[in-house]
Here is the input.
Amino acid sequence: MNQDEAERQQRLVQLIDEWFARTSAPPAEVQPGSELDEDDRATEYLHVSHMVTISLIHAVDHLHALRTLLVDARVLHTSADFTLIRSGLENAATAVWLLAPQHPQERRLRRLRLALADAKDAVEVFDMVKQPTRSLAERRADVVDIAARSGIEERALGTRQPGFEAIVRAASHHVGDGELHQLVWKGCSGLAHGRQWATVALLHGEEQSREDNVTLRQVTAGHAFVINAARSAGVLVGRAFQLLDHRRLHFRGTGPRLRPSWLVDPI
Here is the structure.
C-alpha cells in the first residue's frame, strides 16, 4: 500500500467511524413541520424517515465490517470485501433515492413502492415456512389506501418495483457521477456472485501454469481497487446523510441550497 492509498484509506476509515457512531445512537429528531415530517405524516406508519434510517444503518454496518477487516484484522479477501461494499452501495443508494426528489409526492411514492416490494418478499418467506400472514393483496390494498389519502393514484405505484441497479443508477446520477457508482456496483455484484467476467477483469491474476488453451491463475484483490470501490459507497452514504439532515431540519423551500456531497465532505 503506497502513501496515497494509505491516506485514502485513513480518510475513509475516519468517516466510517463517524457514521458508525451516528447510526449506533438513536436517530436524529425529525423537526415538526419539516419536509421529512410532512413526508412521514403523508406515508402514515410507513415513514420515509424510518426507511432512510434503516438503509443507512445497513449501509454503514457493512462498511464498518469492511473497515474492521482491513484495519483491525489486516486481512484483504479476494471477493468477500466486495460483497460488503455492494451492500453498502445498495443501501446508501436507497437512502439517496428516497430523499433526492425535490417534489414531496415523488419521495412519498418511492417509499410506498419500496413497501410493496417488501410486502412481496415477506409473503414469499411466510409461505415458504408455512406461517400464516396477511396476503399480498391485503398488504397491497393497505399501501394503496395510504397512497390515495396522500393524493397518489394506484397506477403510479405500478406492478413492478424498482431493482437495486435502477436505484444505484439514479443515485449515481444524482450526485453528478454519471454511471460511476452503477459501474462499481456491477463489478461488486459480479465478484459477489462469482461471475467469470468479474474474476478475470477485476482481480489480479498471476499465471501458475498453461496447458493447451487452459491457463491456471492465482487471483487476488488489489488493495487500491477495494478502497476505491468502498469510497464509491462512501460518497453515497455521505450524500444520504446530507439529504437526511436537510429534509429533517428545514421547511419546504427553506434552508441552504444543497450542494453535491464531494464539495462538502470529499472522500
